[in-house]
Amino acid sequence: MHSYATPTHIVREIQPDVPVWCFRPERVTASAKWFRESFSAEPFYAVKANPGVHVLDALWAGGVHSFDCASDTEVELIRTRFPEARIAFLHPVKNRRAIARAYKEFGVRIFVTDTMEELNKILEETGYAKDLTIIVRVAVSCDGAALPLAGKFGASADDAAEILREARRYADELGVSFHVGSQALKPTAWATAMADVSRIIISAAVTVDIVDVGGGFPSVYADGAPPALESYAAMVEASFENMYVLENADLWCEPGRALVAESESLLCRIELSKNGALYINDGSYGALYDAVHEQWKFPKRAIAGDGRKLHGMEAYRVYGPTCDSTDKFPDEIMLPAGLSEGDYIEFGNLGAYGRAMSSRFNGFGETEVVEVQDAPWPSLYGSVGAEVVSIGSMATR
Ligand SMILES: *Cc1c(COP(=O)(O)O)cnc(C)c1O
């Protein structure tokens, strides 16, 4: 992978034609370190947040060796790349063949279910294996999540108790899990969920070996900082103490966004400036899906293509590259005045659900990846040998 000091050097030296992922491996080192050292829950990285192999390799190097996979393809990717990885197949609805392959070909032993039907699928396709870890996913409230996920998955309290009792008869290890939604801004969501789950365990009258508190841990964007990650860890750990589980029960979590959001930014080229509108080479069908569809406020800065000094600020409409008229930013964006063709916009903290959501619609979506050494974006993890930049001083040049 090519390496440059900063995105400004990329612009100066290669004037890239396709969007460039600016990869900051030390941001992954920092997030992996936090999850390993400052939180007692074992992190299973949710692969869907960013399946880029350079990101996976940085996580592995940072000591994250457990993975939350949701599909056959993710299971195969992780097993092929990391033969020693611990893989949990955590999609509540799985294809039968995918279950069988995961167990027999890829050595997966951890499976989730939220119905009796899915439990039976897992048991049948693994031949009623004696070495299964079965996790029962419970529906919980998504209070305070930017992207709530309630409704689609998770067993009701009554159903969960019944599934737990049945699963206990077959499972080597039995767990419970939940997912409070993505970018969950209230640590108390975990306290509520864990108290609910504890009551379910008591009513089921089973022993539980594992409590998996899911994903949803936040990252930091341009619209204000979430509570410190330490407050999430403290809330989860205190709630775990009060749960009705075995003395030596394990605590797991499934972070996606929080582990990788800071790992990559995207450097986009302005292809045209027309009457206060900028046409750039990534948009709603690309890595900026969330910026358009979820009105996510990614931090951003402009970089002049010709090295001139940028000053003043101006509100722009911003359009993505495809022919679809909905491929545009929902609000005007403030950027330095006088931007035109050949200038660049860098969107920061796009490492979660950016690359992952990108499509090839209309022939766009090709990108390059390069490594950079700067640290210009707000961070939840402090610095690792780089400058610390707080939200208030986000650079726009
Ligand atoms: C998406 C997902 C995650 C990761 O969510 P983040 O908000 O990125 O942390 C974890 N667990 C499950 C079951 C998921 O679907």
Automatic annotation (TrEMBL):
Cofactor(s) for this protein? pyridoxal 5'-phosphate
Matching entries from InterPro entries are given as: Ala_racemase/Decarboxylase_C (IPR009006), De-COase2_C (IPR022643), De-COase2_CS (IPR022657), De-COase2_N (IPR022644), De-COase2_pyr-phos_BS (IPR022653), Orn/DAP/Arg_de-COase (IPR000183), Orn_de-COase (IPR002433), PLP-binding_barrel (IPR029066)
Pathways involved: Amine and polyamine biosynthesis; putrescine biosynthesis via L-ornithine pathway; putrescine from L-ornithine: step 1/1
* Residues modified as N6-(pyridoxal phosphate)lysine: 48
User: What catalytic activity does the UniProt entry give for this protein?
Assistant: L-ornithine + H(+) = putrescine + CO2
Active-site residues from the entry? 323 (proton donor)
- Per the record, GO CC terms? cytoplasm
Q: Name one GO biological process term.
A: putrescine biosynthetic process from arginine, via ornithine
Q: Which residue numbers delimit the Orn/DAP/Arg decarboxylase 2 N-terminal domain?
A: 30-261
Pfam families for this protein: Orn_Arg_deC_N, Orn_DAP_Arg_deC
Q: Where is the Orn/DAP/Arg decarboxylase 2 C-terminal domain?
A: 262-351
Could you tell me what this protein is called?
ornithine decarboxylase
Source organism per UniProt: Hyphomonas adhaerens MHS-3
Q: What is the lineage of its organism?
A: Bacteria, Pseudomonadati, Pseudomonadota, Alphaproteobacteria, Hyphomonadales
